[in-house]
Fold this sequence. Notes:
Blueprint: H1 4-16, H2 19-26, H3 30-44, E1 49-52, E2 55-58, H4 60-87, E3 92-98, H5 100-105, H6 107-117, E4 121-127, H7 130-139, E5 144-150, E6 161-176, E7 186-187, E8 196-199, H8 205-216, E9 222-226, H9 230-238, E10 244-247, E11 258-263, E12 267-276, H10 283-297
Parallel strand pairs: 3-4, 3-5, 7-11, 8-9
Antiparallel strand pairs: 1-2, 5-12, 6-10, 6-11, 6-12
Helix pairs in contact: 1-2, 1-3, 1-4, 2-3, 6-10
Amino acid sequence: MLNLERLRTLDALARHGSVSGAAEGLHVTTSAVSQQMAKLEREIGQPLLAKNGRGVRLTDAGRLLADHAARILSQVELAQADVEAQRGCAVGELRIAAFPTAMRGLLPGALTALRAAHPELRSLAREQEPGESMAAVVRGDLDLALAIDWHNKRMPVPAELTRAHLLEDSCDIAVPAGHRLADRDRISLAEFAEDDWISWNEGQFCHEWLVSTLRGTGIEPRIAHIAEEHHTQLAFVEAGLGVCVTPRLGRGPVPAGVRLLSVCDAVRRHVYVVWRADADRRPSIRAAVEALQVAALNV
């Protein structure tokens, strides 16, 4: 009889493409992955992995079994959801990821309320960018992920996921106190054609949004500095090194040398939560989504 944990290991190998990636996704050692695969090969009676340079690849038999493993694990997820739904209690472990501003401005209140309402449900939270966290939900490494769209740029959501809206997050432009526009109440993005910008890491969804949005207003963006955290970006703004977009969610205190300007053509982010469609009936998922929606009303 096939062992479920070994099938889970094979599925992780197929999804991650390497022993080290599978080990990281499963939160085990590479040795544990290799041992599970060796046992599975003995059970199957044929090799499932073959050497590929310094790594490994799945054999034809490995790919065939991996396809079955993905379907089996999905059915297990459905079974667990049904059993949990029958009990009607939010219990067990809930793994959730959020992007930095939601991690700071939304998740603490939601998880505090969730723990009070469902003391047998243990929440494990981690900070992660939306593209990575949604992929982790698809793989089954996470139960829930908080993600964002911009008002003029949507983030693709995998077909396997269900989503629920949480809130609209307005954003401002942060400028140094001595900036030529610092005394204005409202501005348009086109007025920053000559400014240097502080942006997020290249390749990230938010960086791509900023570049495409500025180009849409006729500005060729001058990205002078890259900083991941909004508080770091604001420190650069205070030092007179450029301007940046700063969301209101999880913003916290603004440095004294920074002025925040509203944008005439309102810059907004849509914040939402996603989970696997086959886990939709789990009371823990429903309870967490409800707690997040209530917390969003108080932001």
